[in-house]
Amino acid sequence: MEMELAERLYRLMFTNMREGLAILRIDPDDGDGSPEVIEMNPAAVKLCRCRPFNCKVVDCFPGWFDEDRLQETCKRLVAFGGMVELGEVSWGGSSYRARIFGLSEEHLGLVVDDVTRQKRGEAEIATLSARIEQQTAGLEKRVAERTAQLQEINEELDSFAYSVSHDLRAPLRAMRAFAGILLEEEQSEDERIAYLKRIQGAAEGMERLIQDLLAYSRVGRQELVLQRVSLDEVLADAAKQLELTSGGKSYRLDVRDHLPDVVGHHTVLVQVVLNIMGNAIKFVPKGVVPALEVWAEDIDGECRLNIADNGIGIAPEHQERIFKIFERLHGIESYAGTGIGLAIARKAVTRLGGRIGVESREGEGSRFWIELKKAGPAS
User: Fold this and answer.
1) Name one GO biological process term (predicted).
2) Could you write out the DSSP letters of every residue in 160-182?
C-alpha cells in the first residue's frame, strides 16, 4: 500500500512539474550508445519534436545537443554518477537550460528548465547596470567639474580678499595720506597741485581695479551665444580700442595674412585680444618700441590665433601664474596694471570652449595663442 501511494505521489509530481523531465536509457547492446527517451512528463512532451517515447534524445530535441559529446557524457554518468550541465539553447523564441544526471547503470534523467524570464531579467539587469554605470560616470564627471569650479572659486575668493585688503586699500591709504598733508601742512601752489594729482592718480587706479573686477565677474556670468565670428573684424576692433587706451604710446602692429572665421563671440574676443595686446605694449624694456605680430594657423583642426611681441618675456615657471586673477610678476611701480587682464582672457576663452596659453623666454618676448573651433563653410 505504501509503495502504491509513493508511486502515485511520484507520478503526480512527475506529471505536474513545470520543468521538462525525461528518463533516458542507454542500451548496452546498441553500438552507438545514443540515449533513448523512455518516458517524458507533459512539460517535456511540449518541447519534443517527434514521438515522445522510444526515440533518440537528439531526435526529440534536434539541434539542442552535440551528439558525440552527449554520448560521451551519458556513458560517463551511468558509469560514475553525478550531474552535468548541458548548457543553454534558444528555441521557439524561448531560452532553455538542460542538465543530465545518472540514475542507474542504464538510465539517466534529463531536466529542461525554461529560463526565458530569467534571461530577460538578466538582460534587463545588465542594461540597467550599464545605464547606472553610465549615469554614475556622468555624475562623477559633473562632481569633479563642480569640485574644480568650487576650488577655482575658493582660490578667486582668497585672491579677492587679498586684493580688498591690499590693492583696494592701497590707493585709499595714499589718498588719505596726501589729503592729510594738504589739510595739516602749508604748501606752495605747485606742491598742492602735485599732491592733488597723486590723489587723482590713486583714485583712477582704484577705479581701474574696480572696473576690471566687474569685467571679470561679467565674463563668468553673462550668457554667451556662440556664432560665426570674423577674426579680421575682431582684430580691427581691438586695434581701434588699443589706440584709444594706449595713451598715445607708439607701437607697431603687423598682421601677416587674412584671418579665418571661428565659432565664438565677437565682443568677448575683442576684449581678450585687447587685453593681450595691451599687455604686449606695456611690458617692454625701456626705450624699445613695442612690436606686435598677429597670424593664424591650423592646429589639429582648430584655429590658433597667435599674438607675438618683443617684450620682456616670461620665465617658464611663471607662465601659468600670469593667468590667475590678481597675479602680477612686477611691482606696480615698474609696470602699471591690476593683474586681472589675462585672468579675464582665460575665463572668457574657456567659456567660448577654447584654450589660451603662452610660449615665452625671459628677455626674448612672448607669443600668446588662442585656440578656437573653426567656423564651417559660409552658407
Assistant:
1) osmosensory signaling via phosphorelay pathway
2) HHHHHHTTTHHHHHHHHHHHHHH
What residues are paired with 255 via a beta bridge?
294
**Beta-carbon neighbour count of residue 287 at 10 Å?**
5
Parts of the chain with a pLDDT under 50: 330-336
pLDDT at position 122: 82
Name the phi and psi angles at 29, rounded to 5: -85, -5
- The fold of the 223-373 domain, in CATH, is Heat Shock Protein 90 (3.30.565)
The number of beta carbons lying within 10 Å of the beta carbon of residue 49 is 13
Task: Please give the DSSP secondary-structure letter assigned to residue 166.
Answer: T
- What pLDDT is recorded for position 334? 41
What is the enclosing helix (H) or strand (E) of 107?
strand 107-114
DSSP state of 301: T
Q: At what angle do helices 116-165 and 189-221 cross, to 10 degrees?
A: 180
Given this model, what pLDDT does residue 169 score?
Answer: 66
pLDDT of residue 371: 94
3-class DSSP state for residue 18?
Answer: coil
Other residues' Cβ atoms within 10 Å of the Cβ of residue 89: 15
Instruction: Show me where the domains of the chain are located.
Output: 1-116, 223-373
What local confidence, expressed as pLDDT, does residue 4 receive?
77
Indicate the pTM of the whole model.
0.51
Helix, strand, coil percentages (3-state) for the chain, rounded to 5, are: 50, 20, 30
Can you give the pLDDT at residue 1?
57
- Identify whether the C-beta of residue 60 lies closer than 8 Å to the C-beta of residue 49: yes
In the numeric block, the cell 606742491 is attached to: 191
Q: What is the pLDDT of residues 54-105, one digit of tens each?
A: 678 777 777 788 778 888 888 888 888 888 888 777 777 778 888 888 888 8
DSSP letters, 33-72, are ---EEEEE-HHHHTT-SS-SSSEEHHHHSTTTS-HHHHHH
Task: Provide the pLDDT for residue 165.
Answer: 57
Distance of CA 309 to the CA centre of its chain: 35
Nearest to 91 by CA among 13, 15, 20: 20
Report d(CA 366, CA 293) in Å as an integer: 11
**Residues shown for the chain:** 379
Q: DSSP per residue over 331-368, as a string?
A: -TTTS---S-HHHHHHHHHHHTT-EEEEEE-TTS-EEE
Q: Which CATH superfamily groups domain 1-116?
A: PAS domain (3.30.450.20)
